[in-house]
Automatic annotation (TrEMBL):
<keyword id="KW-0472">Membrane</keyword>
<dbReference type="InterPro" id="IPR046096">
    <property type="entry name" value="DUF6114"/>
</dbReference>
<feature type="region of interest" description="Disordered">
    <location>
        <begin position="135"/>
        <end position="182"/>
    </location>
</feature>
<feature type="compositionally biased region" description="Polar residues">
    <location>
        <begin position="167"/>
        <end position="182"/>
    </location>
</feature>
<protein>
    <recommendedName>
        <fullName>Integral membrane protein</fullName>
    </recommendedName>
</protein>
<dbReference type="Pfam" id="PF19609">
    <property type="entry name" value="DUF6114"/>
</dbReference>
<keyword id="KW-1133">Transmembrane helix</keyword>
<feature type="transmembrane region" description="Helical">
    <location>
        <begin position="59"/>
        <end position="82"/>
    </location>
</feature>
<feature type="transmembrane region" description="Helical">
    <location>
        <begin position="28"/>
        <end position="47"/>
    </location>
</feature>
<keyword id="KW-0812">Transmembrane</keyword>
Length: 182
């Protein structure tokens, strides 16, 4: 056993924290947390009873069932953002729409608390993009060294010194208009 090996001597909490940070970095964690937390006030306040001294103020509204459905859907969307990364755009848009629907249905979106959490979490989910893995600089592939470089847009193509049309789609760079929108 080497004195430099730290794999077996690390504390389990340090290992758990490192693994959690790695897991959290590969998905829209904070967006999922905000959307998950937004479901609680939207779901709770229509069923809450406030007590002011001996006076009980019942908050039960006709939108109670709608508030319950919106709150549960927001919580499910928050959990799905954590465990199913590929639905991040759908879940973000759905969270924003449910937040907007919660304004008239459930006491101004859980007294604006749930509404704001869902809007921020939905916007974060829509805008999230996975990080790019770092690639080593010194490693070059053998195939890349032999491949000719594509012609730059606006440069002369090798056949007669003519200029291309600045779209980068000439026979010299091998694109020939494939995968173009027009």
């Amino acid at each position: 056993m080497s004195a430099e090996s730290t794999g077996q001597n690390e504390h389990y909490l340090r290992v758990f924290r490192r693994r959690f940070r790695t897991w959290r970095g590969t998905r829209p964690f904070w967006a999922g947390l905000f959307v998950l937390l937004s479901g609680f006030p939207i779901m709770y306040f229509p069923y809450a009873d406030l007590q002011i001294g001996h006076l009980t103020l019942a908050m039960a509204t006709t939108g109670g069932a709608g508030s319950l459905i919106i709150g549960v859907l927001l919580m499910v969307l928050g959990v799905s953002l954590w465990f199913q990364r590929h639905v991040q755009t759908f879940a973000g848009v759905a969270a924003i729409l449910l937040a907007l629907v919660s304004i008239p249905v459930s006491n101004l979106g859980g007294f604006v608390i749930g509404f704001l959490l869902a809007m921020v979490g939905g916007a974060m989910a829509v805008s999230w993009a996975p990080g790019k893995a770092e690639q080593p600089d010194a490693v070059t592939r053998k195939d890349d060294a032999d491949a000719p470089e594509p012609a730059a847009a606006g440069a002369t193509n090798g056949a007669g010194g003519e200029f291309d049309d600045l779209s980068g789609t000439t026979p010299t760079n091998g694109t020939n208009g494939r995968h173009s929108a027009g």
